[in-house]
Structure formats: structure tokens, C-alpha cells
Design a protein that fits this description.
The chain is an alpha+beta fold and about 250 residues long. Helices cover about 25% and strands about 25% of the residues.
Length: about 250
């Protein structure tokens, strides 16, 4: 099973790139964030991707998440839903049998830092509920927290910067403590250059001076079968790179 998560930073600007990514990678599940467009503002070919069950959950010019599940991979149509803590179109979940897959776009925290912390606290409860119910869970998306200093290039480390603050990182660890594994880091534990976001100036992306903000988190039963989880740093013109997680049978 191949899962891609990508913060597109505006689907209307990245439509052709999204089609290219799908044709190249053929993901079984595609999670998108920061769509910045309502469904009716997006070309129909993107809203109804051939061969996928598609769900778009977005507002005009702000936030938004999408979730696309390949029909020939999952014979059962997913049940799409929004956990109770969803606001500003920031999370959609697909349930397929005992498996839940969520596409998540955490608030940045720049305008309302307390709201970001509340969202992360709710994510902890969400992960705990899945664990207690015995459900397999994959959470994909832009968490907007660099988990440790290693997840920020040394030139970008700022102790009080939002995304690097101790309370955010503590909440992230609490989410993981509810039975989730950070798949990218578990497969590449010593990589000091594993980033997913680069500020759009001074050629930071080309120089790989970035932050790791985008994640694939999976319950232990699934994480044990993870084979790879690279970041496609050179793909596309979003300020985020797609993350591609592949799981074995």
C-alpha cells in the first residue's frame, strides 16, 4: 500500500502537478492539505479522479483537506467523516473496515496559538480512541510541528518560534504515545537532512535548509510493515514536498 501526503498550498496552482504525481506514483491513498478552494472552484477532473473515491473538504482561499482512496485497492467504499474537533475544514477521515486514514492540516498557530494547542490535544484523544477501539490508524498531513531540533536545519532553529516550542513538541509526543509511530523517522533515524518544508526565499529548498512538518503516523501494527517513506523534495512548486509512505502486505 502506497500513501502520499502533500500540502499543495493551493490546489488551483498545483492541479497539473497533482495529476503528474498521481500518474507517476500511483498511490493507493492520497491525502492533501491547504487546498484553498471549494470543490466548485476546482476542475472536475481533479474532484473526481479516475479510479478513486474522492472527498474534498475545503473553504475558499483558506485551509482545506482532501482524501482519495483507490477503488481497485479497496473493494469496500470508504465511509468519510469528520472528527468532532474539525474546524476550518482541517481533517477528514476515511474508514475502511477496521482501518481509519485521516488527512490533517493543523492550525499554524500564528494568529491563535491556543487553538493550535487545543487541536493537538484533540488529536491525542483521537489517537487514543482508535487505540482503545482496536482500530488501525494512519494520520497523514501537515502537523506544523518540527518534532525535535533534528527536524529543523541548524540555520532555522529558533527556540521560541511557533512550530519549535516545547509545549507543541510535548503534545506531539503525547499523540505518538497513544500508539502511533512516526514512520519517516523510524525508517531514517539518523538523517539530519530530512525536511518537508522550506521557506520560499534565498533558495532554501535547493539548499535543503528546511523543517520537517509533514508526517505519516501509523499504529504499530501498520508501522511494522513500512518499507520506505521518502520526501520528494524536488517535486512541485508548493513550499512543501510530498511524503510517500509504502507499506508491505
Amino acid at each position: 500500500m502506497k500513501i502520499i501526503t502533500w500540502n499543495v498550498n493551493g490546489i488551483r496552482a498545483r492541479g497539473a502537478q497533482l495529476v503528474e504525481l498521481i500518474e507517476r506514483e500511483r498511490p493507493d491513498v492520497l491525502c492533501l492539505q491547504e487546498l484553498k478552494a471549494k470543490r466548485e472552484q476546482v476542475p472536475e477532473a481533479l474532484c473526481d479522479l479516475a479510479g478513486y473515491w474522492c472527498y474534498w473538504h475545503a473553504l475558499s482561499a483558506y485551509s482545506g483537506v482532501g482524501l482519495h482512496v483507490k477503488r481497485d485497492r479497496f473493494s469496500e467504499a470508504p465511509a468519510f467523516a469528520h472528527p468532532g474537533f474539525d474546524h476550518e475544514t482541517r481533517i477528514v477521515e476515511a474508514r475502511i473496515g477496521n482501518l481509519s486514514i485521516a488527512s490533517v492540516y493543523v492550525p499554524n498557530g500564528g494568529k491563535d496559538y491556543a487553538a493550535k494547542l487545543r487541536f493537538l490535544e484533540a488529536m491525542e484523544d483521537y489517537a487514543a480512541e482508535a487505540r482503545d477501539a482496536g482500530r488501525s490508524l494512519i494520520v497523514c498531513g501537515d502537523i506544523i510541528v518540527a518534532r525535535t531540533d533534528r527536524d529543523v536545519h541548524p540555520k532555522e532553529r529558533k527556540p521560541n518560534a511557533i512550530g519549535q516550542r516545547p509545549e507543541e513538541r510535548d503534545l506531539f509526543e503525547r499523540i505518538l504515545g497513544r500508539g502511533l509511530i512516526d514512520v519517516g523517522r523510524s525508517l531514517d533515524p539518523e538523517n539530519d537532512d530530512l525536511f518537508t518544508w522550506w521557506a520560499p526565499w534565498r533558495n532554501l529548498r535547493q539548499r535543503n535548509i528546511g523543517w520537517r512538518l509533514d508526517y505519516v503516523l501509523a499504529t504499530k501494527d501498520l508501522a511494522r510493515s513500512a518499507l520506505s517513506c521518502p520526501v520528494l523534495r524536488e517535486f512541485g512548486t508548493s513550499d512543501h514536498g510530498p511524503v510517500v509512505a509504502t507499506f508491505g502486505d
